[in-house]
Amino acid sequence: MKLSCTILCASLVCFFTACTMPLRPSYDRTTGSYRLSKGEQHTNQVMANASGTTADWMTIIKPWIGTPYKYGKASRNGTDCSGYVMNIYKEKTGVSLPHSSSQMYQMGKKIAKDDLKTGDLVFFGGGAGVDHVGVYLEEGSFTHASTSKGVMISPMSDPYWQPRYKGARRIQ
């Protein structure tokens, strides 16, 4: 009994300590995507806009990482790209967005790729229109709900995403 309590207490301390450590996306060359690493300090200064810094966003993004993709859904049990962005954007900024990437693309101020800041919406599409949305973080990374891997962080320079980039919007 005493040993069980000791193990339980030690587990809780580890759990709560791990939950408070900052997460930072880092690029994993073997998988071609970004992953979250615990304990790394956030060293890059990101100019804060109305939406906050990457570190601010990561506290909201972290619980969503790995959520499976489900078309038309918008919860941590399953979500599509616009449902995910709609939820995290509302939680971070208080702004309600539509559950449609093409409608989101019509909102806010158009932003040049070179002027992207954390919290800007980034849009992608395979043809003439927009069919995917994510939130820009920093250093060319964005968070989104991938149809194949669920909620994740990816580099915009990825060979899949780079040619599909359509533009960005800043919602103030």
What features would you describe in this structure?
The protein has 172 residues and is of the alpha+beta class. It has one domain (22-170): endopeptidase fold (from Nostoc punctiforme) (Alpha-Beta Complex), CATH 3.90.1720. Helix content is 26%, strand content 27%. It has 4 helices and 10 strands; from the N terminus they run αββαββααββββββ. The chain has helices at 2-20, 54-61, 81-93, 101-104, and strands spanning 23-28, 33-38, 74-75, 78-79, 109-111, 121-124, 132-136, 141-146, 150-155, 165-170. The chain has a 6-stranded antiparallel beta sheet. Strands 1-2 form a two-stranded antiparallel sheet. It has a two-stranded antiparallel ribbon with strand order 3-4. A hairpin with a 2-residue loop joins strand 3 and strand 4. The longest helix is centred in the first third of the chain and has 19 residues, at 2-20. It is globular and about 35 Å long. The N and C termini lie far apart (56 Å). It comes from Hallerella succinigenes. Residues 51-172 form the NlpC/P60 domain. InterPro entries: Murein_DD/LD_carboxypeptidase, NLP_P60_dom, Papain-like_cys_pep_sf. GO terms for molecular function: cysteine-type peptidase activity. Belongs to the peptidase C40 family.
Entry summary:
By secondary structure, this protein is an alpha+beta fold.
